Amino acid sequence: MKLTYRGIVEGHAPKDVFAWHERPGALERLTPPWADSRVIRREGGIRDGAEVELEVGVGPTTFRWHLRHRDFVEGQAFSDEQISGPMKRWKHTHRFLPTEDGGTLLEDEVDFEAPLGFAGQAVVPSMVEHELDRMFAFRHRRLQTDLDRHAAHEGRPRLTVAISGASGLIGSNLAAFLTTGGHRVVRLVRRKDELGPDDLYWSPSRGEIDRDGLAEVDAVVHLAGEPIAPGRWTDERKQAIRESRVKGTELLARALAELKGGTRTLVSGSAVGFYGNRGSATLREGAEAGTGFLAEVCRDWEMATRSAERAGVRVVRLRTGVVLSPAGGALGEMLTPFKMGAGGRLGSGEQYMSWIDLDDLVALVLHLLYDPSASGPVNATSPHPVTNATFTSTLGRVLGRPTVIPIPGFAVKAAFGQMGEETLLWGQRVLPAKATELGFRFAYEGVEESLRFQLGRVEDGPSPEVVE
User: Fold this and answer.
1) pTM score, two decimals?
2) What's the CA gap between 95 and 105, in Å, rounded?
3) 220 within 8 A of 161, measured Cβ to Cβ
4) Taking the chain, what is the end-to-end CA distance rounded to the nearest angstrom?
5) Of 14, 20, 21, 365, which alpha carbon lies 20 to 30 A from 277's?
6) Which of the residues in the chain have pLDDT under 70?
7) What does the pLDDT read at residue 127?
């Protein structure tokens, strides 16, 4: 069976779109966030003979998919063909064709043969076509948005950016977004035996960091920290959550403060939990810190950057809301019960949820890295926060599932204790005042638009040309 998908990339010539595909991180950016897939081995880029091996999960099972690139024509085309994997035959050809108005016509031709004889031929093609429809709708939109966002900084020097927490949800997506834009990413790694050519060693617990390597980067994005969920907050977990944020931040801030020249920008993670439980009050960056464990942690976390700030380093404290991506975080945790029809509002449902699409978040970080006027706290949230009840009903509508089973507040507290109360029942109505003032434009201002994009549930996806 052969399927051909076509999509227009507006405002970007084939050579530029092709160059994006050649850079590290392109495969990661083009892999849908709902797909359980990871690269386990890679040799080369997309030129003839380069190979990539993936581990792909389908339901409770996983399989290896080994692909080899071929048919490379600079600026025009390349393909990837299955060496071993789930299909009897698979070849995906990518073509980059010019349009009359200076854009690019992307033509993706997928030629495959299902396994398992007659049974496979009867069932698998329709399943594959459905998933390809979702995938290419997602890929075309993300590609257009990413190219537009990098083009907004065209003509400016590419950056070398060190990232802590680079293996996490935000850090891994930020790294791929930056490298496809031509930037160099240096990962801060805690184990010396795992250091790669673009890694720097650091150990917050030992107070050790590669200062010489740090001096060679243009900026640091600090995202490392012990997860706050799942599970109850014991005294030991609270200490780990606090120390993982404060100690690492203090180490980075001191190291940057002591450098002679070199890195002069630090974007340091924080969270909207800084504001505590504030009901329906509208909160901008000038609002005071709230009360509660998370508010105290965020306050100490942000204070830990002061030594760098005093030394003249430009410090941005990124107060991030709930990051929407099915690949992890809060949305990833809640998908299973919602897909089963067991989702519902939490407590009263009136608590506000300040959220941000993952793609908007990584683009905002790049915007802050480039804008020399950006400093101090910056709310990384959508301009339109919603209540828990609104979010619940919207997610149910996007998934096509009922959301009629509310979970009482006392049940949340009984199951999760203080962690459940502060993260699920408390809320903040946070607005991105500074990001807006700095000229950042959100691609996903509405929660339904973000959910449909991230979950592959767009209502107007591409229709392929089918060749049997």
Assistant:
1) 0.95
2) 8
3) yes
4) 5
5) 365
6) 117-123, 262, 460-468
7) 84
